[in-house]
Specification:
By secondary structure, the chain is α+β, with helices and mostly antiparallel strands. 35% of the residues lie in helices and 22% in strands. The protein is built from five helices and eight strands, in the order H-E-E-E-H-E-H-E-E-H-E-E-H. The structure holds zinc ion. Pathway: Amino-acid biosynthesis; L-methionine biosynthesis via salvage pathway; L-methionine from S-methyl-5-thio-alpha-D-ribose 1-phosphate: step 2/6.
């Protein structure tokens, strides 16, 4: 089970690296391994995620701390993943810093959300109606991670979702790695499209 989950997460990491979504060792990824007790594999802190090594991930528990002896440290933002796994049935969490998601989070930061509509790609979120609306909440970026995790948790109510952290990045989750990656790609499509649209409008 653990090896299978490792491989799944490694594949997602490889694909996101190909998209160049891990600038300057940023970003963190995780995948649930077991429910009782809750354990998940999460990216180790400070690694270049474009490289593949046997130390890319470590197993952590429901408190976000290593579940077994290791010299590796979990990503600093593992507490955000903890909130998702403790509150929902999500199976995979992906967090990336991109220029497009940062620009959108700054532009709409004061509004507290960005709203997308009339976009074919929001069908990726299971929204099929012609006038469907997809909202991504935007929270302020706070350096104190437990505080950030608390603010973040207010927007974690479903087994799938997305939250932007202002001038920081996006966190997306879904029932499994396939779904989480699909959501992340759709979010990045929307952010990238919207940045370009704003440029033309000015
Ligand atoms: Zn981050």
């Amino acid at each position: 089970m653990r090896q299978q989950k490792w491989n799944e997460l490694a594949e997602v990491k490889r694909e996101l690296a190909e998209r160049d979504w891990f600038m300057a060792t940023s970003g963190n990824l995780s995948i649930k391994v077991s429910d009782e007790p809750l354990t998940f594999l999460v990216t180790a802190s400070g690694k270049d995620k474009r490289k593949e090594t046997a130390e890319d991930f470590l197993l952590v528990g429901a408190d976000g701390k290593p579940a077994e002896a290791t010299h590796l440290k979990p990503s600093a933002e593992t507490l955000l993943h903890v909130e998702i796994y403790n509150k929902t049935n999500a199976g995979c969490v992906l967090h990336v810093h991109t220029v497009d998601n940062n620009v959108i989070s700054e532009w709409y930061g004061d509004k507290g959300e960005v709203v997308f509509t009339n976009q074919e790609i929001i069908k990726a979120f299971g929204l099929w109606e012609e006038d469907a609306v997809f909202r991504i909440p935007i929270i302020p970026n706070v350096a104190h991670i437990p505080t950030l995790a608390r603010m973040f948790a207010e927007h974690v109510n479903d087994d799938a979702g997305a939250v932007l952290i202002r001038n920081h990045g996006i966190t997306v989750w879904g029932k499994d790695a396939f779904e989480a990656k699909k959501f992340l790609e759709a979010c990045e499509f929307l952010c990238s499209y919207h940045v370009k649209l704003l440029l033309f409008k000015r």
